[in-house]
Amino acid sequence: MAEETPEPPETPNPDLRDVDPEARARALQSVLVEEGILSTDAVDEVISTYESDVGPMNGARVVARAWTDPDYRERLLEEGISAVAELDVEVNDEVMELRVVENAPDVHNVVVCTLCSCYPWAVLGLPPTWYKSPAYRSRVVDEPRALLREEFDTDLPDSVDVEVWDSNSEIRYMVLPQRPEGTDGLSEDELAELVTRNSMIGVERLGGVEA
Amino acid sequence: MDGIHDVGGMDSFRRLPPDQPDDASPFHHEWEGVVQALYLAGLGSGAFHLDRFRYELETHEPEYHLETPYYERWLTAVESLFDEAGVVDREELLERARAIEAGEREVTEETDPERLPELLEGVREVYMSEREGEVGKPAFSEGDRVRVRKEHPSSHTRCPRYVRGCVGEVASYRGVHVFPDANAHGEERAEPLYNVRFDSGELWGEANTDGDGLHIELWEPYLDSV
């Protein structure tokens, strides 16, 4: 049974597309400010929040805590965002459901959004350009090992299973990397410095692999 | 819809672009941050919601999609949706943008510290897709084998082409979530959502993949039991 297809939206006026995007953004901003929908300080605050408060450093603190506190690790894997909120980090309001997937000596996880650019903003901030690119989104689902090796120097042996997570719903994914060996004496802050953004997306790997 | 946005498994896009922006700033230009704020204003004020926004981006012509920078595409979608919502007039917006570009008009400034918290509250609601207490029992449970229906709707869907027709295993039940295919077209209803794992070989053929498994969230209407 064919369902009724809704009318597609009108083709946008190409003229607006010909104008410099900065001027277009400022024009729309002006109208919304005049309509009382937006304010100048709200725009400034959004920009400064993404520039200084939310970013991979929040995810790194979450990972470091999970490495040093087994109970916290359990809660993080079970409840995601509420475990993140336990730490005094700036949690971005947009992301409500976070799932953390854990690497192991024989498992490596990697995250993508093939349909758009869904990304765990709350813990990692806004995505890098490559994460949003068709080159990454098209290839990581069928050739994850080759992509990780060629683009990120991450060479995974056959003994490690590669599991890809395509985030197409409002559930967001973050990888919990393994704690690197030889880090026993480090403090939580020192550990957090070892955690890279890319290791939480899953294009890099921390810690060892099964022989 | 089977659009250029649905790229999973496509070939020949070649190398990844450089790793930018970096930790110092997530934006290449300040206006990209403005677009981020305009997007949040649209969601937070109820002018449009997430599924409608995604559908709008998907309706851009493939050539425009591939050749236009990310935030510029977002801006094009946000303009159209504010126009559709009756908040702005496209002709007026064009006139104003041209005047700002020519340096003949100033950007309107006004401070209101209440604005952002109110908008973010609205944004939070938009992203909260789980609906408790709706719909009866889920049809599938963990461990069930399911086949993705081979449907090619010309309207919005979050079921990518590469899983259609393939058999996977329900890894987790995620609760009842707003169904994007209906929501993008003005009907908010919720359906059971599952995380389904596919063997990579099932999706691509053993000879064409070097991965082991792929996990994706699929709503119940996408699935048949095997």
How would you describe this protein?
Chain B: Residues 1-27 are annotated as: Disordered. Chain B: NHase catalyzes the hydration of various nitrile compounds to the corresponding amides. Chain B: It catalyses: an aliphatic primary amide = an aliphatic nitrile + H2O. The complex is a heterodimer of chains A (211) and B (226). Chain A contains 12 helices and 4 strands. Chain A is of the alpha/beta class and 211 residues long. Chain A folds into 2 domains: 20-52; 55-201, Nitrile Hydratase, Chain A (Alpha-Beta Complex), CATH 3.90.330.10. In chain A, the strands form 2 sheets. A two-stranded parallel sheet of chain A has the order 1-4. Chain A has a two-stranded parallel ribbon with strand order 2-3. In chain A, α4 crosses α5 (70-79) and α4 crosses α11. The longest helix of chain A has 14 residues, at 21-34. Chain B has 2 domains: 30-127, Orthogonal Bundle (Cyclin A, domain 1); 145-225, SH3 type barrels (Roll), CATH 2.30.30. Helix content of chain B is 35%, strand content 16%. Chain B contains 8 helices and 5 strands; from the N terminus they run ααααααββαβαββ. Chain B has a 5-stranded antiparallel sheet with strand order 4-3-2-1-5. In chain B, α1 (30-44) packs parallel to α4. The mean pLDDT of chain B is 95. β3 (161-166) of chain A pairs parallel with β4 (213-219) of chain B, so a sheet runs across the interface.
